[in-house]
Amino acid sequence: MDEDVQDLNNHSCVTEARNGDFDAFRQIVLQYSNALFSVAFSIIGDFHEAQDATQEAFVKCYRRLHTLDDPSKLGSWLYAIVYRTSLDFVKKKKQTLPYEDAIAPSINYVDAWLDQRMTQETIWNAIQNLEQTSKMAITLHYLSEWSMKEIGQFLNLSLSAVESRIRRAREMLKRQLAGDFEPYFRMQRLDQRFEQKVSELVLRSVGHFYIPVLHRERVLDWFVRHFKLSISRHGNLKVESGHELYLLECHSHLPSELPLLAFEVTDVEELWLKLQDDEVRLEPIDTNTFIGKHFVFYDPDGNPYHAIENKFKNGA
Fold this sequence. Notes:
8 strands, elongated
């Protein structure tokens, strides 16, 4: 990506995310996931823990986005966050159980676990001979799919410095590992499923309520059509309490078995008949001693919801 275009894109995403557009923040996560993951792995030396550190770094990013004075410096700002977060992970790791004890595998997966563990240890031991910046450069090269120029911007290195570091690192690793490290690194790349995981973690961490969906616009229109909910300036649903309801579009999604949200209505039977006429998937009306009349219905992605009769609104 051209440097001016990237700066413009960063500025737009940061500005919109600060103003409450969560989709803009998701773009930041997609763009920088593997870059932050590369830095974390080069410090921690374990792919699983590096993912945890990367997720934590993005949570910090979301909470602190208002402190970023210059959006064009987003990359270096994120680098500093994930670098410090990864160092904290290393410190915590030294204070807890040995790594092998902490992740002891199930007996059914011992062989597969040992193979992966030995491969990862071999690669990690090999790259220990590199200085820290070269570790980051080579992991960025294989994990981020960024160009040499983009890696240089992220690490604050010249293009020639990045090229020479990656060339020397590749030669050294090939001598020690016979080329096995390249496909192994590529297998660890993060994809949209990781971005989805980060987005859910961020929303939970700041107390936002969200519903995972496969087709955001379809479900958004469905809520507006059947329940007359309004849409906020950020494109989210506004519930009766005034809070925003995030519809988080997901790469993959398994509907919850329990209702995600409860709607209080003045007449359960009237709503049930209306939704039935609209061919909405419904469960029969039931009566409970504590909550009175209620029923379960489903959105187009199969997420269940409760409709509960508000006795006070009925004058009971």
